[in-house]
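Re: that chain you flagged

S.,

Sorry for the slow reply, it's been a week of failed gels. I finally had a moment to sit down with the sequence you sent. For the record, here it is as I used it:
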Amino acid sequence: MVNIQAIVFDLGGVLIDWNPRYLYRKLLKSDAEIEYFLNNICTPEWNAQQDAGRPFHEAAAILKMQHPQYAGLIDAYVQRWEETLGDADWETVGILREVKQMGVPVYALTNWSAETFPVARKKFEFLNWFAGILVSGEVKLKKPDPAIFRLLLEKYQLDATRTIYIDDIKENIVAAQPLGFRTIHFLNAAPLRAALREFGFNLK
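Prediction finished late last night. Pasting the structure tokens below so you have them in one place:
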């Protein structure tokens, strides 16, 4: 093993499937309506502000003033948020279990609202396996800001050069690299397993 001290996992898109379309398929009649709503009303950029710490009630109030005809659908994003969660990626959860059983400390760094993260923690027991989880909405910083990576290192006393960081978003991987992290761009479980083997992990 190449002197690895810890492994840090992203959550959404790596270990957990999240997609607001799961909810809006129940509320809107066509894919076109869903795509319009998620690209023009409750957009990824709007959601990202909650990941950065903005309260959902404030975010919803702003949108409802701008788009009163969509008030019910906007409220649903908040009130029925649990329905935007898909399942875990159980193959990747299996990899998490294997490296943890090897005695390697595992951590998580996630862009996630502080209000909704407890819902995921309740749903997915494996979130209790981590030695620590840094949630963007709680610290009011989010990836790819290098400051959140520095906070992770400081909070958990990690050496970036001895830490593997795994994320499905290339922009976040690029942001972590100048700080010294060893990185793996996540595509799915199979190449992740192969990449960890290259680091010296004797995975099944």
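What I noticed first: Residues 90-101 form the longest helix (12 residues).

Talk soon,
D.
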